[in-house]
Design a protein that fits this description.
- This is JAB domain-containing protein.
- The structure is a single chain.
- By secondary structure, the chain is an alpha/beta fold.
- It folds into three domains: 77 residues; 31 residues; 163 residues, Cytidine Deaminase, domain 2.
- Helices cover 52% and strands 17% of the residues.
- It has a six-stranded mixed β-sheet. A three-stranded parallel β-sheet has the order 3-1-11.
- A hairpin with a 5-residue loop joins strand 9 and strand 10.
Amino acid sequence: LQNSPLISAPHTAAYAKRQRVWAAVGSVHTAKSCCAATASADAVSVKNYAVIHVLKMMYVQTAKKKWRMKKMNNKKHKSPESTKKQIQANLKQAKQKSSSQAEQYELRRLALRFSPTAWTKLLHFRDKSDNEVGGFGITGLDDLLFVKEFVTVKQEVTCVSVKFDDEAVADFFDTQVDLGRKPEQFARLWLHSHPGDSAGPSSIDEETFQRVFGACQWAVMFVIAQNNNTHARLSFNVGPGGQVLIPTEIDYSEDFGGSDRELWDAEYAANVKVVEWLREQPCE
């Protein structure tokens, strides 16, 4: 254009100006279009996100409001009768639980328990010979199944039987009464040993227990075998009567004294007399 003779300098300048203006206008339109499209897309995304967030908030608030209203309505419409029934049901459940715990506690206590000293003395007498040996359990007035002492009286023993001397038993009872004890503390627990491995009562044991203790309101027959197997039976002789097997325990929770084997040996020698029991087979 500059070399053309037909176009003057002013025309050239005007032409260049127009080209720059249109180029600038085109650039502006292009930029405006691109920015508008991008802005429009971003606006849609922002709008969609905002709408979703608002909807979520509205749903949560509505759900909370409905739950509160439902809870309030339940409280309003809950009748005094239903409330009373619920309270009674709760009380009944608590009472049953308490009763069950009390029964379990009583079952745990319903056992023939020995102090370590009484138990050791009983085993010492058992192991003195291959014969039976028997005696009475001494208890406290507040715990009649806890044997504090094992005491013997004069007796004749074999490998299958033990027979107390009647006069010795009477003297023993008098002594215990003089000490301030009641019969249920010294004359209800019959303890004896078996030389074999069986703690099951023999026919002689059953007959003796019924004859001697059958008139008592209650009594216990206890047998310990050579291998430490035990049999403890609590018998009730009032009302309809009945018998129940109870466990045997050594109770370390109470105070107890030490052993005195020399004194125990002297008691055994003074009270226990071995007699012959004729039979074809030796005692086992």
